[in-house]
Write a structure and sequence with these properties.
- The chain has 294 residues and is an alpha+beta fold.
- The protein has two domains: 123 residues, Elongation Factor Tu (Ef-tu), domain 3; 165 residues, Threonyl-tRNA Synthetase, Chain A, domain 2 (2-Layer Sandwich), CATH 3.30.980.10.
- The strands form four sheets. Strands 1, 3, 4, 6, 7, 8, 9, 10 and 11 form a nine-stranded antiparallel β-sheet that branches.
- Helix 1 packs across helix 5.
- The longest helix is centred in the middle third of the chain and has 26 residues.
- It is elongated and about 60 Å long.
- It starts with a strand and ends with a strand.
- The relative contact order is 0.15.
């Protein structure tokens, strides 16, 4: 690390939950690393990649200062140690959110030659098209997971389960998910069909035999839900990065979903023409679900 400019650093006010893609703000921390410059501002419309569950990529865009446009190379989660006046970024964050004496912030990474100073007034501009494509992929992934749970609930469990989803179906998605990745207009989930899942009561052999039928039925459920054109609402308990946020979609017909989620999302199911999944058995115990939005 090279030069660090000190200044009081407050928690970043995040704006992406309000569908804001441009903001004027003030720089409250600048730090040059060996490869780039970290810039923390008072507010930001950028969604950073999570250091805990990095399934949703960082937004792209620009920081503009006095007419000079700097590309935001990456957007990361940071935690600022108030007592020691030190910024920790990404995997180097040593504390959980809410820890006394720490403020969580959004860190915009710029090129090393970016000339940014403390208290500079800057404009942050998110690539709205890219953010929108990620939002469609993320919301589609949520819907697909609930649709998959709903279909499996109807015929593939032999035991009740303590873990139910927001629609009161046994939560296969939560039990089995190992990896997830949001991309443009797409979401990829990897599930592990191991012994633990079988002990919990899932009839894995029957499920795999019927995989093509399950896929078709999930797509039918998704088509039914999209036809509602239901609104999607992000309910936030505050505007700090660490404040709880909830993805809410009332599908009508007695089906309403509220779940915690920190990503960016669509505002309505009317934004989709279609959402479809493909289920692929990658190995004896690994199932992949790719959800594609159009």
């Amino acid at each position: 690390m090279s030069e660090v400019l000190t200044h009081q650093v407050l928690p970043t006010k995040v704006l992406f939950t309000q569908e804001i893609t441009q903001s004027l703000t003030q720089v409250q921390w600048v730090e040059q690393t060996d490869t780039g410059s970290y810039v923390v501002t008072e507010n930001t419309p950028f969604h950073p990649v999570s250091h805990i569950w990095p399934d949703h990529p960082a937004d792209k865009g620009f920081l503009v200062l006095a007419g000079t446009k700097y590309a935001v190379i990456d957007c990361l989660t940071g935690a600022f140690d108030i007592e020691n006046n030190k910024l920790h970024v990404g995997a180097d964050i040593p504390v959980k959110r809410g820890e006394a004496g720490w403020h969580f912030v959004v860190v915009h990474e710029l090129a090393l030659d970016a000339v940014i100073n403390l208290s500079d007034d800057v404009e942050l501009i998110v690539d709205a098209n890219y953010q929108g494509a990620l939002s469609r992929g993320h919301s589609a992934g949520h819907l697909a997971s609930f649709a998959l749970n709903k279909v499996l609930e109807q015929a593939y469990w032999r035991k009740d389960a303590s873990r139910k989803d927001a629609l009161n179906n046994r939560d296969f998605h939560s039990y089995a998910q190992e990896l997830s990745l949001v991309s443009e207009n797409q979401s990829t989930d990897t599930y592990r069909l191991g012994k633990t899942l079988k002990k919990r009561g899932l009839n894995v052999a029957e499920m795999l035999t019927d995989l093509a039928e399950i896929e078709a039925r999930v797509n039918d459920v998704l088509a039914t839900w999209l036809a509602t054109k239901a609104p999607v609402v992000m309910k936030c308990e505050g505007d700090a990065l660490t404040d709880s946020r909830f993805w809410c979609c009332d599908l009508g017909i007695g089906e309403s979903i509220t779940m915690p989620c920190g990503g960016s999302h669509v505002q309505s199911l009317a934004e989709y023409n279609a959402i479809k999944i493909v289920l692929t058995l990658k190995s004896e115990q690994d199932l992949e679900m790719i959800t594609t939005a159009s």
